[in-house]
Amino acid sequence: MDTIFQRRSVRKFLENKISEEDIKRILKAGMAAPSCKASCEWVFVVMRDRERFQKFLEVHPYATALKTADTVILVCADLNLEKEPGEGWWIQDCSAAMQNMLLEATDLSIGSLWLGVHPKQERIDFIKELCCLPDHVEPLGMVVLGTAAKEKSPIDRYLEDQVFYETYQGEE
Ligand SMILES: Cc1cc2nc3c(=O)[nH]c(=O)nc-3n(C[C@H](O)[C@H](O)[C@H](O)COP(=O)(O)O)c2cc1C
């Protein structure tokens, strides 16, 4: 699938607005992800108010993309919806949702970036307060969206040395 290789992290965006329709498609793509026992425990906070999401710069040294972003979608888990409470599957479920959203954005020619929140406690605490998350809602990361200021080339990072067959030693 070409979209997988075309997806690149975008950290500078133009002033263009993303449509509500495209945001809905990106959310739908997130919710189409696989999840443990079909928990679908993800919840999303869509932020379009720059003043709000730029506050996150106070605690995140690598979040300069927020300066020009149009929209930020915070991907969280509602722990009350977990099918295996306490086992932590939500991290993988929400990561799958995040990646689906980045790919859908790429397919829509929208620039995107995965901004890490979990497991940095300072960022978690800050974002919980910023977005008024209750105790049972845990943030995983942010999907930053906008129109890319410049195009990046598709990437091929295939490394033969990091592939093993049958066992880590490879076949005898
Ligand atoms: C869990 C995770 C957290 C990330 N956090 C940040 C971040 O805080 N700031 C940032 O600029 N990029 C962040 N990235 C993006 C990576 O830096 C980027 O994916 C990597 O450099 C590879 O580049 P590419 O996405 O263009 O292929 C994150 C990616 C992942 C998967």
UniProtKB/TrEMBL annotation:
CDD domains: nitroreductase (cd02150). It holds the Pfam family Nitroreductase. It comes from the Bacteria. Gene3D superfamilies: NADH Oxidase. GO terms for molecular function: oxidoreductase activity. Residues 4-55, 62-146 form the Nitroreductase domain. InterPro entries: Nitroreductase, Nitroreductase-like, Nitroreductase/BluB. PANTHER family: NAD(P)H NITROREDUCTASE RV3131-RELATED (PTHR23026:SF123), NADPH NITROREDUCTASE (PTHR23026). This is Nitroreductase family protein. The lineage of its organism: Bacteria, Bacillati, Bacillota, Clostridia, Peptostreptococcales.
